[in-house]
Amino acid sequence: MAAATSSTSRWPTLSTLGPVIGLVVLVATWGRDLPVLAAVGAALALGGAVLAAVHHAEVIAHKVGEPFGSLTLAVAVTIIEVGLIVTLMSAGGTGASSLARDTVFAAVMITCNGILGISLLAASSKHGMALFNAEGSGAALATVATLTTLTLVLPSFTTSVPGPEYNTVQLVFAALASAALYGVFVITQTVRHRDFFLPVEVPIDADDPDIHADPPTGRAALSSLGLLLLSLVVVVGLAKVESPFIEDAVAGAGLPQAVVGVVIALLVLLPESLAAVRAARRNRTQVAINLAFGSAMASIGLTIPVIAIASIWLDGPLLLGLGATQLVLFGLTVVVGALTVVPGRATRLQGAVHLAIMAAFLVLAASP
């Protein structure tokens, strides 16, 4: 018991030092050409900020309950992610015109296959079956599918502008529709039908520290909110610092420029990924699904409107339409996702299937 108490008492200190150290590293490295050793140090600081973000997200979730906890993390990450995308696009360079599409689609595939698959695998491996609410999960998947189709699929088939682009009217419609759909979903999730997004009743897990722990005080929750936002700023900022190394590595390996968007999305979504797996292992699969689908929706519902506004001053075309390979993977994701969420329960097989689609996405992104 003494060891456990000691470990617990050290964790808040580590979760506080992580984002602070990361911020110092971010300030010291921002806008500079870094040697390899400094780049490795920045990567380690990024990892510490990710772990801190997961801890503080769990503190907030314990205070406000679901689905507000997962919504807070998803929206906070996405807002900062949008800032990163706009910053990289405004810097220009190879692939800037398609960076938003590549990053947003990578976020959809990572959340709807990677995070969902590994969460189902973690929950079913430990508890025999992953249980969740089909009503809420199905509504979330339908919203993700509609948002993705309106913003990333249709531009490949419109004819007003050459290439996979929207004209001004179409882009304004997609931006307004994305924001409106996301807003309606958030209201549904948090007000009208909140019970659809709460974890289902399952046997109490004696290993879950939240079972007997008192909710944090309001002061502790506010402190965690501030540190969560700081951690996410550090995560995305250090991802920007590492982006030249990512771009050089991608170019040096002869990989397509779209891989840059995939790597950025992987880095930015690390906090949600870890939080989802931890929730799934505690037999709270619905929380993991809220994080997965909620992050996908936030990535589209917040990114596309901002990018539409930013396109007023950004140079060059805004390529949004997906290619044939991506369209096939997205269609497969929607079909498999629907078959996964409709029963309200899943086994390791469903988790493995989603992870196989995720692996196919990564392989085909690197070798189209």
From TrEMBL:
Transmembrane segments: 12-30, 36-56, 68-91, 103-124, 136-157, 169-188, 220-239, 251-270, 291-314, 320-342, 349-367
Keyword list, A-Z: Membrane, Transmembrane, Transmembrane helix
Main localization (coarse): membrane
Full protein name: Calcium:proton antiporter
Locations listed in the record: Membrane
Topological category with respect to the lipid bilayer: Multi-pass membrane protein
Sodium/calcium exchanger membrane region domain segment(s): 39-190, 224-364
Keyword Membrane: yes
Entry keyword Nucleotidyltransferase: no
Organism listed in the record: Longivirga aurantiaca
Source species taxonomy: Bacteria, Bacillati, Actinomycetota, Actinomycetes, Sporichthyales
